[in-house]
Amino acid sequence: MSRSGWAIVGGIVLAAAIGQCAMNVARAAADEPPEAPKLSSAADLLDLYGADGARRAEFFDGRPVSDAEREPLLRMLNAARRFTLGDWYRWLEQKLPWSAWSEKPESVRGQVIQLRGRVRRVTVETPNEEQAERYDLPRYYRCELTLSGDEQPVVVYALTVPKAWKLDETPDKTLDERSGAKGIFIKLAGAAPEALAPVFVAARLAWYPDNELGHLGMDVGLFDEVENRTRLQASDSECFFELLAAVGRANDRELSQLTRDEKQGEPRYPVEPLFNRPQSCHGELLALSGTARRVVEIRVENPDVVRFLGVDHYYEIGLFTVDSQGNPITFCVRELPAGMPRGENLSEDVRIPGFFFKVWSYQLPEKDGKAQHQLAPLVVGRALSRLSPMKANTSFSTVVMIVLVTGMVLLALGLWWLNASDRAARRKLAQQHESDVRFDHFGKE
Fold first, then answer.
1. Among 175-184, 324-333, 428-437, whose mean pLDDT is lowest?
2. Region class of 182: left (phi > 0), else alpha (psi between -120 and 50), else beta
3. What is the DSSP string of 401-429?
4. Per-residue pLDDT reduced to its tens digit, 352-384
5. DSSP state, 230?
6. Helices marked H in 84-176
């Protein structure tokens, strides 16, 4: 073949190689997922979730929420439903932008604001049939709150409210509970600064009851999402990690004192209700003493939990108490005392105060080729106290002592009754003997 012929062949081969390379590059580009858009605000996230700027512009400031605003309101609620724990905390603003609300509310529309105050009224709202089906939203709630400090009135439209409020039993729907929300600002329902009534949408209305857990800033309404006798699942996640964060804010000495009785000594918390009636025990503060057989560290893999709640690890403890009948109680604590051993097959006497979370199910090693599961109460606390063997056995010794004393009292009562019955029988026998003698004597006469 001539030189020109070889050149032509080489050109064809080179063109084919270039074409194949281009096809490979195109195929690889098609296989790669598109680059996720960079988010700089909660408004960017709302754009992705169908509540974009055009929809947000349909809200009119200076008037109550009207029927014309119902569609954008439902879109905002549907977007709020899709926010993750990390989404809420990532864009959360603690400082309330009062000046922006009064001067230019459209500039802060879509901001996420932390609200704290008291809920005064809750009204159930129902979309029309077509909207309910399209958004999978049969109802939502209009909540009137006054914010702490200045009694500023606000309105929050929420997807859920705590079940414990039992709205069906309060006909006028008036309440007075410590509450709050992570709310997305949508409009200003007031025409003048002195009549400001900011309006928000939220995934849920929080509840901070007047108890130890509420005082720690824990939204106790999150327990509504917790399901007993199941594995730890996605619906439990927010409540579980918020509870771990709450106990981290607690004073361990105060928790220990709250679970002691100075007059009567160490109170005994029975474990039977935790196994059999867990629904009534969610969030209850208690303390259990027993033997820790297992102590392992659990690393938290969710980066949002680590970043926003400050929980990067906790310790899981398998505890056996006198009355657990060989069944374990699982404790999750934030801290361990110095020198506390870790691992399996331990025998450490401890006392742990904490808040009951749920009865959970976890997998055991297979037996005869079949999966095995164990149910156990799961309690969340801050730390534990190591006990001396004598102190650890106090509850057991107390139970034994009560049983012995009761037995001795019953035995004494039984002996007394037998002696009394014996004396009565002897008197009766003597009386019968005297009667017989007299009867015989009268007969003989």
1. 428-437
2. beta
3. HHHHHHHHHHHHHHHHHHHHHHHHHHHHH
4. 999 999 999 998 888 888 888 999 999 999 999
5. B
6. 85-90, 98-103, 129-135
